[in-house]
Design a protein that fits this description.
The chain has 218 residues and is an alpha/beta fold. Helix content is 56%, strand content 12%. It is built from nine helices and five strands, in the order H-E-H-E-H-H-E-H-H-E-H-H-E-H. It has a five-stranded parallel β-sheet with strand order 2-3-1-4-5, sandwiched between helices. The longest helix has 25 residues. The radius of gyration is 17 Å and the shape is globular. The two termini are 21 Å apart. Bound molecules: thymidine-5'-diphosphate.
């Protein structure tokens, strides 16, 4: 990527970390442990998430996840982008300007992976929409917790029943999202840290802390 398009640490003074991955890879466990670790080290940490990291965002989240009936793909992409624009303007950017560490559970790469890969919108257009929304603010580090879709979904499943047609479609959808993430990580290795999410909680956390430590020492 063009380094000029990114708003870097030298501009905002804080550290901006996003955590990505398909549903069921263990993002929240890793985020909580990282936030606890950095807080114990005396850092100001803002732990947040998308969609819904602000009051307005909660209303948008409700529209996206709990409303009955379909939302047109472009409308859906715009709602995620609207949530993100408000999140960055009112919570993330002010925190970074104070010098805080911001850890967000999902950010713009979720839109590229889910709306772009999964729902047949053009990935570059989805990314451009988010870049407009956030005035080009990219994370300093994006942690991808990577697991094959079948394994991630199995972790979430309640019973050991045979998968039905709907569940198989779900596996295909999440596998496409996973591949989109892996392609983004390969294209921009300096921003991404790819973690094998079949490893133990402790091993994964150690890898994340190592990279964050390097960034904080810069
Ligand atoms: P999340 O609250 O992280 O749910 P979970 O804990 O189950 O992973 O995200 C809700 C859903 O929203 C998740 O399936 C991913 C999806 N999503 C998008 O499709 N696009 C986006 O831009 C974001 C942020 C999330």
């Amino acid at each position: 990527s063009d380094p000029k398009e990114q708003v870097s640490m030298s501009v905002h003074g804080g550290l901006f970390i996003s955590v990505e991955g398909i549903d069921g890879v263990g993002k929240s466990t890793q985020i909580s442990a990282l936030v606890e670790h950095l807080t114990a080290a005396g850092r100001e940490v803002v732990h947040t998430f998308e969609p819904g990291g602000t009051e307005l965002g909660q209303e948008i989240r409700h529209l996206l996840l709990h409303r009955k009936g379909d939302v047109a793909p472009r409308a859906e992409a715009l709602l995620y982008a609207a949530d993100r624009a408000h999140h960055v303007a009112t919570k993330i950017r002010p925190a970074l300007e104070r010098g805080a560490v911001v850890v967000t559970d999902r950010y713009l790469d979720s839109s590229v992976a889910y709306q772009g890969a999964g729902r047949a919108l053009d990935s570059a257009e989805v990314r451009a929409l988010s870049m407009f929304a956030v005035e080009n603010l990219l994370p300093d580090l994006t942690v991808l917790l990577d697991l094959p879709a079948e394994q991630a979904l199995a972790r979430r499943a309640k019973t050991g029943q045979e998968p039905d047609r709907l569940e198989r479609e779900k596996v295909e959808f999440f596998e496409a999202v996973r591949q989109a993430y892996l392609e983004m990580a390969a294209r921009e290795p300096e921003r991404w840290l790819v973690i094998d999410a079949s490893a133990s909680i402790e091993v994964m956390q150690e890898q994340i802390r190592d990279r964050v430590k390097q960034l904080l020492a810069r």
